[in-house]
């Protein structure tokens, strides 16, 4: 019985790692756009590089399957990992709270470097800050954590729906023949500013010509810019709370039976999948007009993201319950998720920025996405190779060493020793 329990515990860790690995791979599928072209195109595709059919198909596939869902799933796994790390610290006789806050402070430092030196889309500072808050609720049971996550998602979505409806009414009123001239002028200026002109694109290219140029541009945004994510704080808090609830309930650790996972996968993945496809078709039908696109992408889609994220998690758990070579590779990507996340930025910025191949603002959305499959292959190949020789990913090792103010063992001494979780 003891042996079975040990094997079950190991499988549950693998379940977490596989899910985290797939999530971090999916994130790059969306982030590559933010590295390849002007920032506004990340949020509104027609702003740049969106003229071909391939660009629209790539947006649609990302919108249906990845955008917001796998970032959300990664946030869920981050919340679960907070409890996992604190539990491990407690078993090892270390103070779990000191362990957690030391990790978050170091992560905050990494995030600031990532933002100011490499890329505006950093999420590490955000995770570190939210992680310092969400841990205060970590002693609650799974039911209360789940309820609080639902409250957070409602608090995130509801104001957007209210204010968007007011804005949409104002816009449609401006199109009426008898609309006030100042209202018409206001909306004409706003619509004209959605797509960057040649001067804006030229200035943006200059800001990505080198690391010093990026640093100067990032500095102009202010020292708190990487933390200025507005309502996204509330959504991320909801996802992390959901992760804690999923960990405590056994959902994320693979402790449920297959029948329950099947129900979650069908209801939480299958149902939203149809709705997201309908939303995408609606935006496409209206030519990605700003109001219609905003409605489906930033107003009505977000409330469904946590539902679909948990459906994806259930599907992953079902698919990778049994050991396989593919499961091992996804798990290795998950165990080196921090290193892989930064590696994606290094690869993306080298390909697109001026200090590398200088393809920034030269490719369409679909063309830029062609970088994704080889990077996925790289992640699957190097992660397992590395962990067969070392205990942790390179940045996981550095994070762990800095958090503990002591160099941690890195190289493996025996070939058959099991891989560890950083």
From TrEMBL:
- What InterPro entries does its record include? Bact_Transport_Assoc, DUF418
Task: Say yes or no: keyword Membrane present.
Answer: yes
DUF418 domain location: 247-404
The UniProt transmembrane annotation reads 21-44, 70-89, 101-117, 145-164, 264-284, 304-320, 332-356, 368-387
* Keywords, comma-separated and alphabetical: Membrane, Transmembrane, Transmembrane helix
**Can the keyword Membrane be found in this entry's annotation?**
yes
Put simply, this protein is called DUF418 domain-containing protein
Instruction: State the organism of origin.
Output: Sphingomonas piscis
